[in-house]
Amino acid sequence: MPLSEQEQRLLDEMERHLMNHDADVVTAPAGDRALSYRNLIYGAVLLLAGVGGLIAGVILGDVIGLVIGLIAFAAMLGGVILAVTPVRRTTDGPPRPSARTSPVTPNSESFMNRMNDRWDRRHEER
Fold first, then answer.
1. What is the pLDDT of residues 22-42, one digit of tens each?
2. 117 occurs within a structural domain
3. Per the domain annotation, does 106 fall within a domain?
4. Which of 23, 53, 55, 122 is the most exposed place for a label (fewest CB within 10 A)?
5. Domains held by the chain: number
6. Which domain does 65 fall in, by range?
7. Which H, E and C letters describe the chain, residue by residue?
8. Would residue 83 count as lying in a domain?
């Protein structure tokens, strides 16, 4: 069933709005920082050690268990922070292409045109 003129205009407007604002998300600058696998591993190990310490603190109970539990909680928190904190990239390797370097050609077929073509082909096959 074809769209009315008003529906087609609304759809085109929504597509333009999405393309303009979605581009902001896709090309958000990553800067020169990235996650480090080494920090991810160290953070995960520290997190697991903290969980073990927390369990030991619960088992021991009393004041010493409370102190061990607090230290273990701090270790878990530090492990998560270590794992998710990005580190500065080194400039040893070749520069990575960013999303901003890929030019968007105005002549390229829009998403909605491709979807319309697929829809038409699908209904022609029936």
1. 655 555 555 677 888 899 999
2. no
3. no
4. 122
5. 1
6. 39-88
7. CCCCHHHHHHHHHHHHHHHHHHHHHHCCCCCCEECCHHHHHHHHHHHHHHHHHHHHHHHHCHHHHHHHHHHHHHHHHHHHHHHHCCEECCCCCCCCCCHHHCCCCCCCCCHHHHHHHHHHHHHHHC
8. yes
Please check whether residue 58 is in contact with residue 65, taking contact to mean a CB–CB distance below 8 angstroms.
Answer: yes
Please answer whether residues 19 and 34 qualify as being in contact, where contact means their C-beta atoms are separated by less than 8 angstroms: no
Do the domain assignments include residue 5?
no
Distance CA(37)–CA(15), nearest Å, equals: 38
pTM recorded for the entire structure = 0.48
Where b means 16+ CB within 10 Å and e means fewer, 21-60 reads: eeeeeeeeeeeeeeebeebeeebeebbeebeebbeebeee
Q: CB under 8 Å to 10, separation ≥6 — which residues?
A: none
- The packing angle between helices 111-125 and 5-26, to 10°, is 130
Question: What pLDDT, in 10s, does the model give residues 98-108?
Answer: 555 545 555 55
Please give the structure tokens belonging to residue 38: 């080494």
Query: Are 80 and 44 within 8 A, CB to CB?
Result: no
